User: Fold these one by one.
Assistant:
Number 1:
Amino acid sequence: MTRTKIAFIGAGNMASSLIGGLLDDGYAHENIVVADPDEERRSQVAANFGVKVTADNHRALERADIVVLAVKPQVLETVCRSLASAIASPPPLFVSIAAGARTDAILRWLEHDVPLIRSMPNTPAAVRAGATALYATASVTQQDRNDAESLLRAVGVTVWVDDESLLDAVTALSGSGPAYFFLLMEAMQSAGESLGLAPDVARLLTLQTAFGAAKIALESGADPAVLRQRVTSPGGTTEKALEVLRGSDFVTIINKAVAAARERGAELADRLGGKNG
Ligand SMILES: NC(=O)c1ccc[n+]([C@@H]2O[C@H](COP(=O)([O-])OP(=O)(O)OC[C@H]3O[C@@H](n4cnc5c(N)ncnc54)[C@H](OP(=O)(O)O)[C@@H]3O)[C@@H](O)[C@H]2O)c1
């Protein structure tokens, strides 16, 4: 990271994950300031990470090189509008992690043409296994991109999209994605139990299998389709199970589910951003 001082607006779950990741990466705790109205949250964050905390968002902005907007989407407009008068010249880099808040709305609320990067992380960021997509607005420099990438890479992998509307697809795929895998795990665990396995045995076998499958896919770099073929012997047990899944339109159902999530994400973003605000 080329610039030093980072201000987090909002001291919630995602801010804590990011701060933890940055500190693990060797980032100096004295260069992080966190603003949150909740005293208990502030004390927790100060105690856990040794960072500076404040109840005053304007104070957090003072001397910040990077401002991370880490509040819930529904309060983002109020937060941005209140920050507008404290934005210095030249402005810091703003990085929003708020789901569904589009950059045109954020820039309108901030009342300044600041360099702004919108990101969409996911919950596995809490265990440094997140997947984040980033989108940069026009005034963002290469250095801004590098800094935002370092920030989000502290909690997992990052990818860039060059069309903001693709963040709705990202939200549907990796944002909501952990829940799809949890559902599959629930179903597999329950299937194991109904075949006579003890719940704890079915659970462990399911979770480790999910973890192992993802690890092989990531480490081998091979397409999931190729990996699936490799573990499917003709006439064997896996082939039999896959026949049942295909016969039930498994792939179509997943496609429909992800498309529905994308549509809902776009609707929520329209509602959040308003048009005239
Ligand atoms: N958690 C995830 O995995 C995840 C994934 C993708 C995107 N995100 C995005 O990350 C953002 C934060 O999510 P989160 O799960 O970390 O939420 P969270 O735990 O609720 O954290 C938000 C924090 O912001 C504080 N806050 C509220 N109003 C504020 C204000 N005016 N100024 C400063 N801080 C204020 C909240 O305090 P109070 O509790 O007192 O209101 C809370 O501590 C959201 O926009 C979400 O869409 C999260």
Number 2:
Amino acid sequence: MSLAAQDFQFVCTLVRERSAIVLESGKEYLVESRLGPLAKVEGLPSVESLVAKMRSNPNGELTDKVIEAMTTNETLFFRDKHPFEALREEVLPELIERNRSKKELSLWCAASSSGQEPYTVCMLLREHFPELKSWKVRFLASDLSRNMLERVRVGAYSQLEVNRGLPASYLVKYFTKEGATWMVKPELRDMLDLREINLCKPWLGLPKFDIVFIRNVLIYFDAETKRQIMGRIRGLLNPGGIMFLGGSETTINIDDEFQRVRRGSTWVYRIAG
Ligand SMILES: C[S@@+](CC[C@H](N)C(=O)[O-])C[C@H]1O[C@@H](n2cnc3c(N)ncnc32)[C@H](O)[C@@H]1O
């Protein structure tokens, strides 16, 4: 039985208010396929009963679980390849040169999902920029999803996950095998500060950054939310700072204050200065 229109609408409104994720009409199947398993875990007979329980207490824990279930956490190591080549070959060398006198570098991965993206960056930093060991490098990894942040904290990946994008030389150097699981070595894990940050709510106490990765998350938001988030990122970037977006994301027609510049085979978004 498919979800009643008013239940779908209720979920859409709640998800949009709490996470900015826009669920277009026609996405009823998505709501059902994501919330069906959650209903089971919660011991409820159907998605309808899950929605009814949420309606009776929209500010309860169940709502947080529903929001988490509606996020898309797809990610992989070295996703799209070119941004990481650009990071290694151009962006980091430029910023290291710029920051050499203060010996500080600050990065933020703003939708880190299960951690493949921030750990990819950690591996590149370790592998190609040994001089940073004597610098103050701060690397914040955040996400809305507590489950995903817990995955980053634990740093455990299945064979399937490491097979997706991670070069064998990095696997043997930066991971240890425990049973069927590959564990990120503490030297990488310790590079990350983890924080739960909802991009559509206030971001409190964030420092300035040289690089912000906000990839494959803005696609889920409407244009006004994208505009607001990009504006807030601009305010947090140091002069010359760089924002990385996902392959299908852009600042065009959303935020013209960013300079859209080519680095290697990819576009990055730069703050003047
Ligand atoms: C598709 S993943 C992208 C992961 C990684 N950046 C990449 O490109 O591979 C999208 C992530 O955005 C997170 N997300 C969705 N809405 C969010 C919000 N309002 N605030 C913070 N994170 C959010 C989800 O929890 C999910 O982990």
Number 3:
Amino acid sequence: MKRIAWLTDIHLDFLLTQQVTGFLTSVAALRPDAVLISGDIAEAHSICEYLQRIDEAIGTTIYFVLGNHDYYYGSIAEVRQRVARFCAERPRLHFLTYADVARLTPGIGLVGHDGWADGRLGDYPGSLVVMNDFKLIAELTGRTKKDRWEVLKGLGDEAAAHFRRVLPLAFESCQEVVLLTHVPPWREACWYDGRISDEQWLPHFTCQAVGEAILEIMAARPDKRLTVLCGHTHGQGETQPLDNLLVVTGGAEYGHPAIGRVLEFD
Ligand SMILES: [Fe+2]
Ligand SMILES: [Fe+2]
């Protein structure tokens, strides 16, 4: 039996040092075989420092993707490269956005990518929501709303292209796969405050490109199973878009990181 702990939106930079240590100690106390983190760990300038603390405190294999907050005060391209280089020297840390297929057990595969809210669901042109992303992430600053939409779509498409490549690859040798991503890929998975987000928030809380890719891949493989683990909205919920596809959106509260779920696999 393998025990896998899943964490999302832990935002460790909101905590005092001893609170970070306390939380990571509680994760380590579960003695998990692996830990999955679906993004929003810290910010651009502190992400590697917190990854190191996670690695040292938990001492087991860590698979993660990054969330929008992990790029705050930096650039997506620079942070991704820096994090990939950082992980290359730490054998327990795995940045799935830059990986192909990992294994949770010999028969259960793991794939992941940050994903990105691509503005395609809900009403992007009419949305009055201004995400901090637009002020704090280099690729998104200094643009008109329309121009920014193209960048958001491009980021969503990049994530979808990753899954179109690695997910079929994973199913070549696995009956069951877990997919880790920061942004919910469907409206039905976009829980916030106990209900589905409205047209104003959906553009900033969902990645339609990834959702379409996953649906296409799973509809063609009714004998395979996929579990999607995501976060970003901080609202908890579960949905099953297909018989062979379960999506879990993890709840989170700033300043109170929690263990989202402990998954057990034979
Ligand atoms: Fe978050
Ligand atoms: Fe987020």
Number 4:
Amino acid sequence: MTSRSSEPRFICDRMAGSLCKFLRLLGYDTLNANDLPLGNLKEDTTLLRNAEKENRILLTRDAELSRRDQNLVRYLSGERLDDQIRQLVRTGLVKPDLRLTRCSVCNNQLVPVSATTLSKYLNENPDIFPGSSSDDEKITWCRHCKKAYWEGSHTRKMREQIHQICFLSDD
Ligand SMILES: [Zn+2]
């Protein structure tokens, strides 16, 4: 747990919402500018201030914003998610390990949940369906949004994808 303090934390601007979700799945503490109220004309300044206050790196596609503070901001040179992931991994900012320790929706830490608790919750809340799960897997969930996470074919596929993006394709 102590190692986490040295780990980078991020804020993604509104143009990097997909990257935000992805970084959370990798386990990085990442805030999303899309969670801020709309209509703030000085949102860039707010983002810079929050990044400084909370010791976060601001990730943006906005070249002008990135020039305002080169210590706090990283300019994302690619438009595609793949390119952005590759950039962060190749510059050593992010490790390409899918850790599943954090909720991709709200950034909260995931906690273990027993299959019994989970199925009880699903019975009481039939409108929420987090997908199917096998009961012998270790299941974690987000207490806040009740989204469940577990290892399976979907995570295997994602790891292959990450490997492909970071180590195999070269464009
Ligand atoms: Zn959540």
